[in-house]
């Protein structure tokens, strides 16, 4: 249990203000019959043994700083704890300075590539990458927070057109500025030595033939040949029947009748 010390009475004179030894948190006690009986050592009753204590829903200073160090904002901590924003800012300020310093040191670290740490720093590398892509090299903002394993995550945020982009790196302090390794695809593309490649390459789309191919046009010197015409077959002429010689002598018609 934590011990409280009395600071004084509230302005209405009906409540007692207490605080912890480090003056980090304050509490309010109602001056009712149960509190007076507890101070006298009297037994008030089994249903009145508890003392009503108004404890604001506040985090301890070290809890506030732990959440801020892990990446939460002042507004997020204040809203989650239902605490006053100014109080959270007071304890968060030194941790925010720590995060800002870690992000600054990370920009001077050297990106780890496939063949080892780069000669250029992280800031020099991403600046060259943004310039090669036609983006403003002064637009990025930097932030950092400490993970549960004690390592730092560094975030770079920048704007390209209407889109907001972020890239994350893992920062390891060390000699000559330490090193940073890419934590996501955006970070990997930023430290890629091929600066001219876009951040999000698009696959080439095959060109589709949407129109039917046209027949080749004939040259003006060549006249189109008419289609061949087929002549109808001529009717065969029937030759007149020639009477036999004996019919001529006997005077018989060619049809076989007698005259």
Automatic annotation (TrEMBL):
The cross-references to Pfam families, in alphabetical order and at most eight, read: DUF3071 (PF11268)
Q: Taking every annotated instance into account, which residue ranges of this chain make up the domain DUF3071?
A: 1-171
Annotated stretches, region: Disordered: 211-259
Q: Where is the composition biased (Pro residues)?
A: 223-232
Q: Which InterPro entries match?
A: DUF3071, SepH-like
NCBIfam families per the UniProt record, alphabetical: SepH
State the protein's name. Answer: DUF3071 domain-containing protein
